[in-house]
Specification:
about 550 residues; alpha+beta; FAD/NAD(P)-binding domain; Glutaredoxin; 8-stranded mixed sheet; 14 helices
């Protein structure tokens, strides 16, 4: 007889994606166990992700931590400009101007704006929220050494990193949030497809009042360009004195002890009398990989375990948090029994194209960084090289718009090919990386609109399904409510009388999923309401399931 499950969900990896998943599951009432091989939260200042885009901030709003993220400590009045130059005291090439947080209005399409929150602040913030919630367990110094799955659960072998002891835990589902070298993905034998771009080294540098030592003015980031292309960049981490200095573009693995980091910094600074402190160096690979599928049976992948991308755009962590928004409600549905086996396929069908799209955008940005064209005379004096620099600056400002202004990447992805989305025949808007057009077309994020001061329509979404009734003459939803009760589907009915919102959503009935994505819309309920309910909750229907997904073992996800 199979041993009963000890925990509904085991999460391998206690980084931001694993912590966010535990927090989301916790607010859904689903307990989880996070195992992280590191002995504690790494409180060292690491050169890692530091930007949460608008969609991620909407997720933080849903999780109840948006205000804490906004007030974590990054100053609201610091410059967000990116400066292209040969050195801080070298030749100026161009500037991409961006207003500070204080001077930037909310986007019309969202109740949140993107925020800077370095990972060494974000991870502890998430961990405190998880522990304060009191539903998930968090074990540091514990690694997942292997697992086997069957029709009823996953047997996970856990190793205590301090003494080497082994423990077996049964979980209903396992989620690998264990990064680029994911042991979970490897054990599932899921191919990781893509390219290794190059090797880089990042070092954290402390410099007080850097703008005193150069004439280029305050900026969030400085890209240093030579005849070889962009060879390094300096990015503010905390908006004050901490910077990430990255040396990039090597085809061979770089080791910090083989680099004269002081000489490289002097080249970037353009002078040798700037006082600084080197805090920590981190070698890393720049890659663009996507897993062939994001689940197998009862085991799912999220974050860097499922996809990696160049940080040129800041899409890596945000794409991982998007995985969590999608996956959290699906796992809840499976654990509670109202979701079906097509959810596993839907997760891959929805998130894999987004990962490929976001990764391609990041790689395109990086290609412009390291492009050598127009840089031959960038270090030379005289009117002609100066004209070349101005032309190069204009090219970089125009070409990197999608890196520095990427609302379309953050918000405009499309789940229209998912087996649990019901199309209505309308055309998708153009997928532009910078500009985002709101649409209530099935498979897209339900549009934001203010209903009252501080209250957006998206604040209705996030727990169960929501069926919106638009206008005073909207049809009855009683048949849908009865079908939902029979299936155990959690749903709220929300009446909207605001004509602006009705025009935005375009139909009298709009069904929004727990992740805020539109699942179905029409002006009347279909004759077979049970089929509608079954499809959106992942009960496989003949002709309703697409080709790309979990694989033939998805049937093992039984509830």
């Amino acid at each position: 007889m199979t041993k009963p499950n000890d925990v509904p969900v085991l999460i391998a990896g206690g980084g931001p994606v694993g912590l966010a998943l535990a927090l989301d599951l916790g607010r859904r009432g689903v307990p989880s166990l996070i195992v992280e091989r590191e002995p504690s939260l790494d409180r060292e200042i690491l050169a890692k992700a530091d930007l949460l885009n608008e969609r991620s901030m909407e997720f933080c709003r849903l999780l109840g931590i948006a205000d804490e993220v906004a007030n974590v400590g990054f100053p609201d009045d610091v410059s967000r400009d990116t400066v292209f130059c040969t050195g801080l005291n070298g030749y100026f090439i161009g500037r991409y101007e961006m207003p500070s947080t204080r001077d930037r209005p909310l986007p019309a399409q969202s109740p949140e704006m993107h925020r800077r929150c370095p990972q060494f602040w974000f991870d502890p913030l998430l961990a405190r929220a998880v522990l304060g919630q009191g539903i998930a367990q968090l074990r540091y110094g514990t690694s997942l050494d292997g697992f086997t799955q069957d029709d009823e659960g996953v047997t996970c072998r856990l190793r205590n990193m301090a003494d080497g002891s082994i423990e077996e835990i049964r979980a209903a589902y396992l989620v690998g949030c264990d990064g680029l070298t994911s042991s979970v993905r490897t054990a599932l034998d899921i191919p990781f497809e893509g390219d290794q771009l190059d090797y880089s080294v990042s070092v954290v540098v402390r410099v007080d009042q850097l703008e005193r030592f150069h004439p280029l003015g305050a900026g969030e980031r400085y890209l240093f360009i030579g005849p070889e292309g962009t060879w390094a960049n300096l990015t503010s981490i905390d908006g004050r004195s901490l910077f990430r200095f990255t040396v990039l573009g090597s085809e061979e693995r770089l080791r910090p002890d083989q680099l004269d980091m002081d000489a490289l910094l002097r080249r970037a600074f353009g002078r040798d009398d700037i006082p600084y402190e080197l805090l920590r160096a981190l070698p890393w690979r720049r890659t663009h990989f996507t897993a062939q599928r994001f689940c197998r049976g009862r085991v799912f992948l999220a974050g860097d375990a499922a996809h990696t991308m160049s940080p040129t755009g800041g899409h890596g962590l945000n794409t991982g948090l998007g995985d969590v928004m999608d996956l959290g409600w699906m796992i809840q549905a499976l654990v509670e029994g109202w979701g079906g086996p097509a959810l596993g396929e839907a997760y891959t069908a929805e998130r894999r194209p987004v990962a490929r799209r976001n990764g391609a955008s990041s790689t395109k940005n990086y290609a412009m960084w390291v492009d050598r064209s127009g840089r031959e005379r960038v270090l030379e004096a005289g009117p002609e090289p100066e004209a070349d620099r101005r032309k190069l600056g204009d090219k970089l400002v125009a070409g990197l718009k999608q890196e520095f202004h990427s609302l379309g990447i953050a918000m405009g992805y499309n789940y229209g090919e998912s087996p649990i989305i019901i199309p209505d025949g309308s055309a998708a808007p153009f997928d532009d990386p910078s500009d985002y057009v709101q649409t209530a077309r099935p498979g897209h994020r339900a549009p934001h609109a203010w209903l009252s001061q501080g209250h957006s329509i998206i604040d209705y979404f996030g727990k169960g399904f929501v069926l919106l009734r638009m206008g005073n003459n909207a049809p009855s939803t009683e048949a849908f409510e009865q079908a939902a009760r029979r299936a155990g589907l959690p749903v709220d009915i929300v009446a909207i009388v605001d004509e602006r919102v009705q025009q935005l959503y375009e139909r009298k009935l709009v069904l929004v999923r727990p992740d805020g994505m539109v699942a179905w819309r029409a002006d009347a309920l279909p004759d077979d309401v049970d089929r509608l309910v079954d499809q959106v909750r992942g009960i496989a229907l003949s002709g309703s399931v697409g080709a790309e997904g979990c694989d033939e073992n998805a049937a093992a996800i039984s509830v």
